[in-house]
Structures are given as C-alpha cells and as structure tokens.
Amino acid sequence: MSSDASIGTPKVSKSDAEWREQLTPEEYQVLRRAGTERPFTGEYDEVFTEGVYSCRACGAELFRSETKFASHCGWPSFYAPSADDNVILREDSSMGMTRVEVLCATCHSHLGHVFSGEGYGTPTDQRYCMNSVSLHLEPAG
C-alpha cells in the first residue's frame, strides 16, 4: 500500500482551477476532493455493458467489464483493476475508520475504496467500490 510520499507525481497534473474548469461540480467533489456519491444514484451502479471503464478526469484505463459484478451495495463494483499499476492504493483514515482508498495512477484522482473478505466469492475476494462519477464507460465495439 502506498503512502502519500511514495505515490510520486501524477503523469497528468493540472492546477485546481484547471480541474474545476474541466469537471462538473459533482465530478470535482468526488475526483479531486475524495467525496462520495450517494449510493444507488450513479449511472454505472447496475450497468453490465461490455467495455472499458476509464478515469473520468484523465481518460486512463482502470477496469474492464469482465471484472464488474453485482454487489448490490449502491456503487459499481469490480474484483480487480485491468492492470495493477492502473490504480494506487493508500490507507484512508478519514470518517473515523481505516479503509483502503483507490486512486487513478495517472492523475491521482479519487475513485473509491477497495474492500476484502466480504464473501462475494470473486476470484480476488476483493470489491473495488467505485463512484460512477469517477468513471467513463467506453462500450465494446
């Protein structure tokens, strides 16, 4: 797991003003301020279209539809990123609990959190619980 010091400089780096100009207020709050969209409201929560999910902020590939599963938790869930180096995992001690935050490895935007050992029966026993507003789905074909 990465610490703030070990995650390095993002490959895509913009000023706060540039991010605000590019993103909607909701996207900015989640991607750049580590917010969370309300459960069961995101556009990809119950979508199972074949394709590639990329970072809404920078366009980097993050997940593929083959690893998406129905967790019924209110947010899109995946059991693995498309490549381990597409995301950064770091400890998150906010909100009075310790969790593992998931960031885009390219622009360091907040995507969501990853949880283990919840009994979903996925190949990795992990649930990457992502905010829909952090993602963009490019359908296959």
From TrEMBL:
SUPFAM superfamilies: Mss4-like. Residues 1-21 are annotated as: Disordered. The keyword Cytoplasm does not apply. It comes from Actinomycetospora flava. The keyword Heme does not apply. GO terms for molecular function: peptide-methionine (R)-S-oxide reductase activity. Residues 16-140 form the MsrB domain. Its EC number is 1.8.4.12. It is an enzyme of class 1 (oxidoreductase). It comes from the Bacteria. This is peptide-methionine (R)-S-oxide reductase. It catalyses: L-methionyl-[protein] + [thioredoxin]-disulfide + H2O = L-methionyl-(R)-S-oxide-[protein] + [thioredoxin]-dithiol. InterPro entries: Met_Sox_Rdtase_MsrB (IPR028427), Met_Sox_Rdtase_MsrB_dom (IPR002579), Mss4-like_sf (IPR011057). Keywords: Oxidoreductase.
